[in-house]
Specification:
Structural class: alpha/beta
Distance between the termini: 99 Å
Number of strands: 8
Low-confidence stretches: 1-19
Radius of gyration: 26 Å
Number of helices: 16
Largest sheet: 6 strands, mixed
Helix content: 55-70%
Length: about 375
Amino acid sequence: MKKRLIVLFLLVISGSLVFAGLNEDYQALQQQFMKKRRMVRSRTEMNKLGIERVQALKNLLAKYKGRKLAEDEQMTMAEVLMSVDNLASAWDILKTITAPADPEKYNAMCARSLFGLGKDTMASKYLEKLNHQGQFYGMVNFGRGMSLLRKGEESAAIPYLKEVVGVVTLQDVYRVYAINALVTYYEDNGSHARAMKLLAKSVKDSTFSGRSRNELKNMEMAMAMIGKAAMNLQNIVRGFNGNAPVVFKEKGKVIVLDFFAPWCGPCKAAIPVLSKLYLENRDKGLDVIGVTRLYGYYADGKTRQQNITAAKEAELIATFVKSQKASYPMALVGNEDAFKDYAVTGLPHSVLIDRKGIIRRVFTGMYSQKSFIKAVRTLLDEKVK
């Protein structure tokens, strides 16, 4: 009898696996990749995981191609299609659904797919049906705003990003990112006062977590440096790639002061961009100076050493700089003074100084490369009276 029960149990389990539907397969796939994502330790690994996930989703689509699906499975099929950027096929499915079990999710999916297909008027109608304080509303606006930013349509993106900031039920990371994008837009268009007003209001917004408010406060402190005179770099203990300028007494050059660390992925990604920018514009009066400091440890994504001496850390940084083939000088400072002077609380952090020695722009975090290069060229084109 016991053996029969075991056999029956196995048959039930195997049967459930054989006849598992699209919804179950999709949920299993999602859980599988969520577990893998928690193990990711680098951007390269994240990119590989993204490629792997897309292929798994395509395999799932192939498995259910041509099958008759229930309406809730059609929603899932549309979601999978959207995940692999097949928005046209997703919309073809969505427009056939007459009684969605989750109208909020359905309207969000319709809006997103239609925006992606360039059918903005239709998309807006679905967007307006959403709860304006719901996460779906916030995420559709965020996606639309970021899509427009990537296309270089900053003005068109602004209304969507403003909506994101106001959705208090949305995760802070999206709202803070939207604020950062708005601040960049205002600064790009010479509206420093407007950028500072937005930051001041956001810092006091109790709907943000304490950690997010602290992040916004740091952003506010960094942007408050704009308009102030550039300061000498303090306590330089070593220079790389030639002599890094220590003081800014000699006016007449545009200076990019780039604070970095070997363990900062976005900082490393910026080095080739800064190198190219420097080589193309040094004859026009551009100086680029990389600045890092002693931390008491070293990490570069491949190597990690704890509790090391200042001399050992300096040697490791020298090796790192050489491996990056930077074309511009870099400086190693012995303490946090230079970082505090320029309100550096996180990395990346780049400061643009004009020919008169005045701080004109500050870029923090995952800033817009397009805005950064445009700001540098604007300063290079300015005539000094």
